[in-house]
Amino acid sequence: MPTLFSRIGTRRALLGATAAAVAFGLLLWWLLPLGEKPPTGTITLATGTRAGVYQKYGELLREELRKDMPGLKVKLRTSAGSQENVARVATGQADFAIAAADAVETYGYDDRPGADRLRGVARLYDDYVQLVVSADSPIQSVADLRGKRVAIGLPDSGVRLIATRLLKAAGIDPQTDITARADGIDTGPERLGHGLDAFFWSGGLPTDGLERIAKKPSFRFVPIEAKLVAKLHDQAGPTRYYRAAAMPESAYPTVQNGYAVPTMAVSNVLITREDADPRITEWLTRTVIESRDGIGAHVHSAQLVDLRTAIYTDPLQLHEGARRYYASVKP
User: Fold this and answer.
1) From CA 190, how far away is CA 213, in angstroms rounded?
2) What angle in degrees, to the nearest 10, is found between the helix axes of 278-290 and 53-68?
3) Which of 38, 97, 242, 254 has its CA at a distance of 20 to 30 angstroms from the CA of residue 266?
């Protein structure tokens, strides 16, 4: 027959177990948005070319989303880049995508289908324009590209948009003054010196497609001067997102030899549509912010994702789900 002391001990144990369960429940409620179970379903994320930063970032983000939302299936779709990504989201071919801010604004400026439905999730990191030539090339400026064979990026890519505008700012007609090629970061590096005199790339630093060939410094970067960036702003259309920048010497150290390269940069935005599921969008936004260090260990540019700047998704207003997340973590 149980004694008084054993009954008291049992009661204390039960009370302790109950308190622990309540504490765990409160902790779980605090950790999970609104105390809810992770959302489920299927989403499509448009990325970029296989050798670019968009694709690598997308692959790593999918792994992080799988940890946070095990019941959510994330399909990745490669693409030519920013311009195609914006169109896919706007027309319902993808649910989320990474795109440069200039491509997003251009889509709206041109009044393309579904432009008014686009919404922002998070500002991510900056793309840097990289004009690449062979190490022994005589090309020293964008103006020197006249008469040369130049890869200006795939059709519907962000690179194509930027390269075309830069060439015009330098007084070069992309249709008549150069032999334009449609190579991207997947084929441009290997064709340099073998059918190409130069190629444009715009991406996070460093980009795998360039980092691989940087082990043997057979190429160099052509500087893009600040005055040329200023001329870009004088062009008709949405060019306000371009800004003069310097590619740090640590980006490709074997190529840059301790020198920063003058160039231009543009921010990237994670985008979606107005009708995207608010719960999925809220959870996805949280994962984007909280996985920064994990993804940044493999994609260096992702280390720049920051809660303080992520909310600025100009030219798009925030999606309702993203707004919920930012409101929940506001100091």
Assistant:
1) 9
2) 110
3) 254
